[in-house]
Amino acid sequence: MRKIISFMHISLDGFVAGPNGEMNWIKVDEEIFDHVGKRISETDAALYGRSTYQMMENYWPTAGDKPGASKHDVEHSKWYNKAHKIVLSKTTKAEGLMNTTIISDNLAERINEIKQQAGKEILLFGSPTATHALIQLNLIDGYWLFVNPVILGQGIPLFENIKDKIKLSLLNTRPFTSGVTELNYVVDRQ
Predict the structure, then answer these.
(1) Residue 7, exposed/middle/buried by CB under 10 A (0-12, 13-18, 19+)?
(2) What is the CATH architecture of 4-187?
(3) Domain layout of the chain by residue ranges
């Protein structure tokens, strides 16, 4: 069965964005891009909430074709264009979208159908609202977190309205020279 892994940058105090959605505190550099790019290239599907999908769709399809595009932009653009995109949205229409599945209702049933299909892990990129919905339905199988060396004090939390304890097992950690620390957890379903 395919697994859904939530991929997020978070602050030390657990926020994924500032109070107005700002993400200018996130540290990324070539070391992180190379590391993340390696794992992303080993998967074949991305899951997004509507807002994150629109942001991605406005940039990634042509990012690698632009003059002076970075190595990261070229590689991620190629991957993005090949990857199957799963979008949680009640308003996005599927017409004309290539290699994209829109899920607007029956979330648990539809996600479980996708998890049963052949393929590799599904990376849930950003999308805090989608992440919150999937956490409530116990559909996230792991967390791939990049803890940034900043305390925001307020903002959009990664975890909110958690009803039941979620036990995790740490797979690995990795510090980066920028001060960011990667944490890889799997949900312990026992």
Answers:
(1) buried
(2) 3-Layer(aba) Sandwich (3.40)
(3) 4-187
pTM above 0.90? yes
Position of tokens 């697994």? Answer: 3
pLDDT 10s digits, 146-163: 999 999 999 999 998 888
3-state secondary structure 37-85: HHHHCCCCEEEEEHHHHHHHHHHHHHHCCCCCCCHHHHHHHHHHHHCEE
Query: Which residues have CB under 8 Å from 166's CB, separation 6+?
Result: 135, 187
Q: What is the pLDDT of residues 105-150, one digit of tens each?
A: 999 999 999 999 998 999 999 888 899 999 999 999 999 999 999 9
The two structure tokens encoding residue 12: 């030390």
